[in-house]
Amino acid sequence: MEKTVGFARGVAVPEYLSFLIKSWFFLLSSAVILYLLLAATYPPIHDTVHHFRHSLAIVPCH
Amino acid sequence: MIKAALFLWVILSLAAADVRAEIADIKLKTVPELSEARPSFELVKIILDLLDSGSNPVSAGRLRIRLSAPAPSGLFSTDFPRVEGTLLLEMTLPVLQGRVEWDYVFPIRGIYRLEVESAGEQASGVKKVFELTVKEQRYKFLFLATFLAVLFLFGFIAGRFFTGARRKSEDRR
């Protein structure tokens, strides 16, 4: 029988599925954070991280 | 006879003086040295020394100058990609005491192309192309390496965290 783990309150899912969901969530949130940090052109975000982007040599800013 | 010889000497001297006024060679110098200059940070004085055929400074003339930014490299961008491969300067400057100079802040790292051509009435068609190599600021590569190391460490810790429960249950078996 497939081992289940508590995924959320009152929800139990197979362990492999829990791992899959958590790791995909982690990778997605990492990608979003990296996009906001390194590539987003929305002015308030760009202005906040402008100096950081210019400090990394290979990250295009303008 | 003496008058004719003097007249000939004066004419030849004037002709020789005119030849000396023509630009034969252009030498480039920068302050500070380009190896020390860093982009978007340091004001660099670019000096062009104009010499005639006898290696003396040219007294007058004008110089047409074109400065092009480094071409984009395929793999890694600079922090200012909009500048890459564009024409940065196009100007004609007067020669003062055998020299043309101006101050400039190079915007990005890479190899700039400086085309210099004599212009004006005394132009002799001398054209020279200089390649100016500007290196990136060292701290930027240090920051990049630190950022990549932090990302790698974060990924490693996340990997350990997500596989921790699995490893524990496998150990119990």
The count of DSSP E runs of length 2 or more, i.e. the number of strands of chain B, is: 7
End-to-end separation of chain B in angstroms reads 123 Å
Number of strands of chain A: 2
The overall pLDDT average of chain A reads: 85
| Uncertain residue segments of chain B | 12-20
- In oligomeric terms, what are we looking at? heterodimer
Strand order of the largest sheet of chain B: 4-3-6-7
Major pleated sheet of chain A: 2 strands, antiparallel
Run of helices and strands of chain B = HEEEEEEEH
| Cα shape of chain A | elongated
Largest interface pair? A-B, 18 and 24 residues
Number of helices in the DSSP assignment of chain A = 2
Q: Would you tell me the structural class of the helices and strands of chain B?
A: alpha+beta
Q: Helical residue percent of chain A?
A: 55-70%
Overview of the molecule:
- The complex is a heterodimer of chains A (62) and B (173).
- With 62 residues, chain A is an alpha+beta fold.
- Chain A contains 2 helices and 2 strands, in the order ββαα.
- Chain A has a two-stranded antiparallel sheet.
- The longest helix of chain A is centred in the middle third of the chain and has 24 residues.
- The N and C termini of chain A lie far apart (56 Å).
- Chain B is α+β, with helices and mostly antiparallel strands and 173 residues long.
- In chain B, the strands form 2 sheets. Chain B has a 4-stranded antiparallel beta sheet, with no helix packed on it. Chain B has a 3-stranded antiparallel beta sheet with strand order 1-2-5, with no helix packed on it.
- In chain B, a hairpin with a 7-residue loop joins strand 6 and strand 7.
- The N and C termini of chain B lie far apart (123 Å).
- About 5% of the residues of chain B have low confidence.
- At the A-B interface, helix 1 of A face helix 2 of B.
